[in-house]
Amino acid sequence: MKYLYINLxxxxxxxxxxxxxxxxxxxxxxxxxxNNPYEVKFNSVSPKYKIETAxxxxxxxxxxxxxxxxxxxFLVSKNGEVIYEDxxxxxxxxxxxxxxxxxxxxxxxxxKVLTAVSxxxxxxxxxxxxxxxxxxxxxxxxxxxxTVRHLLNHRSGLPYYGNFTEIPGMWDRKKTITNKDVLxxxxxxxxxxxxxxxxxxxxxxxxxxxxATIVEEVTGxxxxxxxxxxxxxxxxxxxxxxFDDIKNKDTVTQSYHANNIKMHWDYLDGTYGxxxxxxxxxxxxxxxxxxxxxxFLSKNxxxxxxxxxxxxxxxxxxxxxxxxxxxxxxxAGDKYTFHNGxxxxxxxxxxxxxxxxxxxxCFNNKNxxxxxxxxxxxxxxxxxxxxxxxAE
Length: 392
Known about the structure:
- By secondary structure, the chain is an alpha+beta fold.
- It has helices at 2-25, 47-65, 111-124, 148-152, 161-164, 179-188, 205-219, 223-232, 281-290, 299-305, 374-381, and strands at residues 72-78, 81-88, 90-92, 97-98, 105-106, 241-242, 277-279, 317-319, 324-326, 336-343, 346-353, 358-364.
- It has a single domain (51-381), classed as 3-Layer(aba) Sandwich (Beta-lactamase).
- The chain has eleven helices and twelve strands.
- The strands form three sheets. Strands 2-1-12-11-10-9-8 form a seven-stranded antiparallel β-sheet, with helices on both faces. The chain has a three-stranded antiparallel β-sheet with strand order 5-7-6. Strands 3-4 form a two-stranded antiparallel ribbon.
- It is globular and about 60 Å long.
- The termini are far apart.
């Protein structure tokens, strides 16, 4: 009887995994024969606009971003067309491996955009309910009033796992922490919330570690496998992947100090969803283009993604579902939507100007704030009240 019972459990788990695999296959019912079903037909960009804008962008890029020490990729698009792009520096200084258009780079918190989109696409297919408690999907999660939406918009009140693992006796920091470990600590260590859920915005990587774990639980796949099905394969983002095995750390693009000394890795480098997604500017542009498609994300879901949720404090800065935004006062300019990233030497920026159908993408693997100067470039391309920085 004991063996029969064990076999029945195994069969149940297998059937459950099969059912989840069938469900996730329905996320892209239009995806057949390798075609991208989410192509958007933009208006063509005039040659005059291309020439004039490329000159503006190139001048800004050479004066304020690639001033001699930049290492990474840079791209600006209009209506899905590349207006200007450039690549500089090395993915591995020791081996003199140059960064090219096909070099995947660790985009740090820009990866949260992909994590959020994967959750929103599953929500569109009724596989996730954004307003259900997290413990609907992660059994044993102890904070009963925290919802999936609270994770997405950073209103959960959860503390950062990089902080609570420093509490004596909480975690052996000689051991790499994983997503499952973060969840287990939250379930078993009586870790206190920093704020009551949905009372204020507090940016926290723990939220996106849990979101990636929810995707895994709902789909029955690893986050890497799920992301391929939900986003990467349909959009042909062939140079994008989730880094989920720290044993392979020497095989990916490295990050560096300003003096070209390689950044260290430590116990926090094993989690994903909050970071550890590698991609290229060209692949990120493919995602940006898909965000204009109502087949890729429904209009309703995009409205939820691109609106702010935190208005407790006065100010223009806000956060949607996986995107930051600056909402100027009426008449002071258009809404600026973006996400920056910073992890080790990787400093990155993704700007999506939906009204202007412009994307600005800058990934940098050499520890400097050059990538963040995309903000002022937006002021030259649209109605945004940003002052151009002085030259380096």
